[in-house]
Amino acid sequence: MAIDLLSRPAAPAPNTAVFMPELVYFEPDALLYPKGEQILAWAKKQGLDIHMTTSHNQIRDLPGESELEKYRIAKRTLVVGIRKTLKFETSKPSAEYAIPIATGCMGHCHYCYLQTTMGAKPYIRVYVNMNDILHAAQGYIDERAPEITRFEAACTSDPVGLEHISGSLKQVIEFMGQQEYGRLRFVTKYHHVEPLLDAKHNKRTRFRFSVNADYVIRNFEPGTSKFHERIEAAGKVAKAGYPLGFIIAPIIWHEGWEDGYAALMEKLYQALPPEATEDLTFEMIQHRFTKTAKNIIAQRYPKTKLEMDEEKRKYKWGKYGRGKYVYPDEQATALREFITERIFDKFPQAKIEYFT
Ligand code: SF4
């Protein structure tokens, strides 16, 4: 018997499941839109705990004993509302504008800047008035035409991880597919790409995956899809004809980082089908933090191994006096040069868009 057990192959690790909220709140007016009704029907079918709220900006009665517990519950709470602000934020260096289709994310990446930007409202909001949002996007495109206007859909969320609930990303992809002067980009750490594979993208959407050295994924990205799942999804996306990209972010200086990032490139090279490498871009973002972020991260992920020692960093002044800590020039250059060389070694045709 014991021999039988030992010789049995190890069970494969379970796939990362799609996000399933525990609580769902609706603004009453959201139910006047087909998307609102459709999400309500979905939530009922899943047997989720459904509530009404007056505004998606004011969910005050979330359960939880401690701040930490409230935070964890908020990350499993979905709010369905109407996007009122239709003035888009800028989104340099990856695009001209951020297109707001969702706010918040169910992932638990320790370093995520949403922890600071979303402050006391870490719950996940999806918007039902897509026509208003697309109409605003059209205005921005027309204003700049014939210059190309790029929109980033992942500035405030991970929209691929919410697609099974909202279907909004596919709408934006197909809208942009019809725009001569509009382009879409987004990045994801989720592998649930199936609903997007048959979208009429017309090659006007760049589908990017966030990848990293094994050490970073293992230690700092709980609640997201595994590396091999993301890469498998990247292959499917490339086969569906999308231009593909990878964002290596945050690049973290850690013991053995050279081996870690070399292994990352080797794994990408081994796993990607040839069509994925024809029009491939890379973006590189070194790890940075603010004092505010450091305090929030310490409260929410008290055991994190994320190094945030101001003494070891360089202070980079930012807009409105809000600076951040990045790696000193020597380390940043070493990271940039090493990873750039590895990228070109494996993917000589690839384009590196920036290192920041
Ligand atoms: S997946 Fe992206 S948006 Fe979500 S927590 Fe992680 S870094 Fe933040």
From TrEMBL:
Alphabetical UniProt keywords: Lyase
The keyword Lyase appears for this protein: yes
Domain of life: Bacteria
GO cellular component: endospore-forming forespore
Matches recorded under Pfam families: SPL
EC number: 4.1.99.14
InterPro entries, per database record: rSAM, SPL, SPL_Bacilli, SPL_firmicutes
GO molecular-function terms, A-Z: 4 iron, 4 sulfur cluster binding; DNA photolyase activity; S-adenosyl-L-methionine binding
Record bears the keyword Translocase: no
Gene3D superfamilies associated with the record: 3.40.50.12110, 3.80.30.30
Entries under PANTHER family matching the protein: SPORE PHOTOPRODUCT LYASE, SPORE PHOTOPRODUCT LYASE-RELATED
Name of this protein: Spore photoproduct lyase
Source organism (scientific name): Paenibacillus whitsoniae
Classification lineage: Bacteria, Bacillati, Bacillota, Bacilli, Bacillales
Name of the gene this protein is made from: splB
